[in-house]
Amino acid sequence: IRLWAKNKAKICLLFPNYKPNQLLEKFFQLYDTWDWDKIPIIIAVIQEEKNNPKNPEQWTAEKDILPNYKNKMYILTPAFPCMNSSHNVSQSTINVIKNFLHDANVYIKDIRQKGKGWKDLFAKVDFFNIYKNFIEIDIVGNDSEEFKMWTGFVESKIRRLTNNLEWPKLY
To answer: Strand, coil or helix: what is 41?
Structure first.
């Protein structure tokens, strides 16, 4: 949700005089064709604080995109230090996102060109019929500190599992 809030903010900044339906159309039009692994979404000018050595190293295209294209998506935080808020997006996740963005873009074109209604765009997604395989994980802890610790641990293991499932076997 936070990722998409940043993307919506970018559309509102680019088209400040558009009506809500026009903003929605521009959102799907732009992000359906976005080159996610090469072009970052930048909401605000990246602030640099070179005089403060205690701050973590700032995100830069030269350091983070050009050498390895390791991330599938770049949505940068507007506050210092600028970071890629979508660094955990996997190949399968970006594929799902791209498919939904494309489908919504096509549907909005049909609304405008063929007179379809808006309500179908916002219909509930039947998750369990679309995705036959999924994992549900419940994380519990005795207190909020333990819960945060376990959450970070489990998220890192899920990220590793996802990457291993996506990586082609070389043997």
So the answer is: strand
Q: Determine what percent of the chain falls in helix, strand and coil, rounding each to the nearest 5.
A: 50, 0, 50
Is the Cβ–Cβ distance between 43 and 74 less than 8 Å?
no
pTM: 0.74
| pLDDT tens profile 21-55 | 899 899 999 999 999 888 888 887 776 666 555 55
N residues, the chain: 171
Burial class (CB in 10 A: 0-12, 13-18, 19+), 89: buried
Q: How far apart are the first and last CA of the chain?
A: 38
Q: Is the dihedral of CA 93, 40, 104, 117 positive or negative?
A: positive
- H or E stretch covering 63: helix 61-64
DSSP letter string, 69-121: ---S--BB-SSSSP-BTTTT--HHHHHHHHHHHHHHHHHHHHHHHH---SGGG
What residues contact residue 93 under an 8 Å CB cut-off, 6+ apart?
A: 72, 162
